[in-house]
Design goal:
Blueprint lengths: L2 E9 L4 H14 L3 E7 L14 E9 L9 E6 L2 H9 L3 E10 L5 H6 L7 H4 L7 E5 L1 H8 L7 H5 L2 H12 L4 H11 L7 H17 L13 H7 L2 E5 H16 L3 E5 L6 H8 L7 E4 L3 H13 L3 E6 L1 H17 L3 E7 L16 H6 L8 E4 L6 H15 L2 E7 H5 L1 E5 L63 H16 L10 E3 L5 E6 L3 H11 L2 E5 L1 E3 L5 H5 L4 E6 L4 H9 L6 E4 L8 H8 L2
Parallel strand pairs: 1-4, 4-5, 5-6, 8-9, 8-10, 10-11, 11-13, 12-13, 16-17, 16-19, 19-20
Antiparallel strand pairs: 1-3, 2-3, 7-14, 12-18, 15-17
Length: 602
């Protein structure tokens, strides 16, 4: 097979995310491309063994991988509830392999998972073509650690390592590399390493001794291609975003400042940056979302590369302060890791429902640059680009990612700093010393940046409207309209430096799929199956200059989004006479390629 989809699922305390991440990293080492989907329960901690507490981690690995896959080829079900959720949601193929822990299908387990009979496989109508691999994971783990001295609770927490060992055997993953990951994971608790290593090794040996197999599934690595192009690693979107910010600060010689408040699923960005004091990163965990963005604006006024990270509810709270950065014309990077809403909504699920808020969710005529990353790996690229555009154009830039990208992982080529584009902050030239005021602009309409400590550049910056010439407070009607148009023109001219919109797939087709952000992989696969064209957007405001030309070239244009049609609405507002179809899902999950293909085939 060119690729295989594996789903680990169990109770939220069964360590499915750790197991999935380790297996994904092992696969990346072997040269497999990967795309992952961590699927957390929305509850903080549902009762153990219940349907609401099922946690999953799905990975698609192999060659030509763009999505985590619609359905799994292999499922590891740690309990009866996990099996039921997978069946009810149609998460596996009819010829799939399902590995189950036979010790977790007791009468009590079945009752918790709301089974009506004592035979779950018959009750769930699992097809005979599905290969069931029964493994007594709990019993075997207890046997493995019977002489360890660990209490029963700690022993049971190691079941995931036995399962990982079995799966490593089935897919020929290097057990020594897995042991290395465990040593890193438990570096602060080294006493746990030997126990986990033993269970992992025993799981691997169990699969070997019983000659367990998953029919004819075999993956061929593609490591030669990777060696030709550089060094690769597996990276999650939040970590890639943090590293992109750090790279931008290093490139332009600015100190990186993050002022934020913890919020799911964006908090990992703060965690990663807080650990990078060695790179000169300064992090302030503020008392709330508003304080977080305001500290960042203060850092920007002081001359730092200033950022704030949040999710949808936090972006709402930050909106007034972002307006301050717009009217004060200060560089600011705002990262919005979108999640299911409204309000607290579905905090662990993914959506694309903050687009119109990012574009218009501020009072007054308040334009800001809006970008959207499309893979976990290119979160690095677009975090870097967001910094570049903010510093060179003296404007807030909002970068949209989402839960799917933030927690998911992908294979990422590690760039060299010298390969990255130059960043040239819009610093006030020495020639303005003694005559500087905050209204002075270059030929692009971008004002010059001066900050405290620059002798001869003393000034005040304000949230009130300022005179277009002097930079002082002004309530003149004509001046206000002039300033509104100047700030908009500054954003519009950025279209001159961003790349044109590219068409992928069959460019001569009559049908064009259109998407933005994290749906790229799913739409790319759908376009291949449909043999049609695809236009995918990373630059939202401003749009690429050739957008209208591309969209009006095709007879049928289908805009696919994980919302009720926000990007389609935006496109219609930008181009008169544009005819669009919409395919929308708001399920808290990424697209299923199959459903897109079925719709577009009508």
């Amino acid at each position: 097979m060119k690729n295989v989809v594996i789903r680990f699922c169990g109770d939220s305390g069964d360590g499915m995310q750790l197991t999935g991440n380790m297996f994904s990293s092992l696969s990346a080492i072997l040269g497999n491309e990967i795309s992952t989907l961590p699927d957390f329960p929305a509850e903080i901690r549902a009762p153990q063994g219940t349907l609401g507490g099922v946690s999953g981690f799905q990975v698609n690995l192999g060659q030509g991988v763009y999505t985590p896959g619609d359905k799994a080829d292999v499922i590891v079900a740690m309990n009866a509830a996990a099996l039921k959720v997978c069946v009810q949601n149609g998460l596996f193929h009819e010829h799939a392999v399902i590995i189950v822990d036979t010790d977790t299908f007791t009468k009590q387990d079945l009752e918790k998972a709301l089974y009506k009979t004592d035979n779950p496989f018959t009750e769930l109508h699992i097809p005979e073509s599905v290969q069931i691999v029964p493994v007594a994971l709990t019993t075997l783990t207890k046997e493995s650690l019977k002489d360890s001295g660990l209490d029963n609770k700690s022993v049971l927490k190691s079941r995931n390592m036995f399962a990982l060992g079995v799966v490593c055997w089935l897919f020929d993953r290097p057990i020594d590399k897995a042991i290395h990951f465990l040593e890193q994971k438990f570096a602060k608790k080294p006493q746990l390493v030997p126990h986990n290593v033993k269970v992992l090794t025993d799981g691997f040996n169990y699969g070997q001794n019983l000659a367990l197999s998953v029919s004819q599934i075999r993956l061929e690595a593609n490591d030669e291609r990777l060696k030709e192009h550089g060094n690769y690693t597996s990276i999650a979107g939040n970590k890639a975003t943090a590293w992109g910010l750090i790279a931008a600060a290093q490139k332009c010689g600015k100190q990186l400042f993050l002022g934020s408040y913890p919020i799911t699923p964006a908090t990992d960005i703060m965690h990663e940056l807080a650990a990078r004091k060695d790179m000169g990163v300064m992090v302030v965990q503020a008392e709330d979302e508003i304080a977080g963005v305001c500290t960042a604006i203060g850092a920007s006024f002081a001359g730092d590369l200033a950022c704030t990270s949040t999710s949808g509810p936090g972006l709402s709270l930050k909106s007034e302060a972002i307006g301050l950065a717009v009217i004060a014309e200060l560089p600011l990077v705002v990262i919005d890791v979108q999640r299911g809403g409204p309000s607290t909504g579905l905090p662990t699920k993914t959506e694309q429902t903050d687009l119109l808020q990012a574009l218009y969710g501020r009072n007054g005529e308040c334009p800001a640059v809006v970008l959207a990353a499309s893979t976990s790996a290119n979160c690095f690229e677009f975090a870097y680009t967001a910094c570049k555009l903010a510093l060179e154009n003296m404007t807030p830039v909002i970068l949209l990612t989402d839960t799917y990208l933030a927690n998911g992982t992908a294979l990422w080529r590690i760039p060299k700093l010298a390969e990255l584009p130059e960043i040239n902050p819009q610093s006030a030239p020495e020639s303005l010393k003694g005559t500087y005021n905050p209204a002075l602009r270059d030929e692009r309409g971008v004002r010059y940046w001066a900050f405290p400590g620059m002798e001869g550049f003393e000034h005040r910056n304000i949230g009130l409207e300022r005179d277009a010439e002097k930079g002082t407070i002004s309530t003149n009607p004509e001046n206000h309209e002039k300033m509104v148009r100047l700030r908009q023109a500054k954003i519009d001219q950025i279209a001159d430096v961003i790349p044109d919109l590219q068409i992928h797939g069959n460019v001569d087709s009559d049908t064009l799929l259109v998407g933005w952000g994290s749906t790229e992989g799913h739409l790319r696969v759908a376009a291949e199956e449909l043999n049609c064209a695809l236009a995918h957007f990373n630059y939202i405001n401003p749009l690429p200059k050739n957008t209208e030309q591309v969209l009006k070239r095709y007879k049928r244009v289908i805009v696919c989004e994980l919302n009720s049609g926000q990007f389609a609405t935006y496109l219609r507002s930008q181009f008169e006479g544009l005819q669009l179809e919409q395919y929308n899902e708001i399920k808290g999950q990424p697209f299923a390629v199959e459903r897109i293909v079925n719709y577009a085939s009508k």
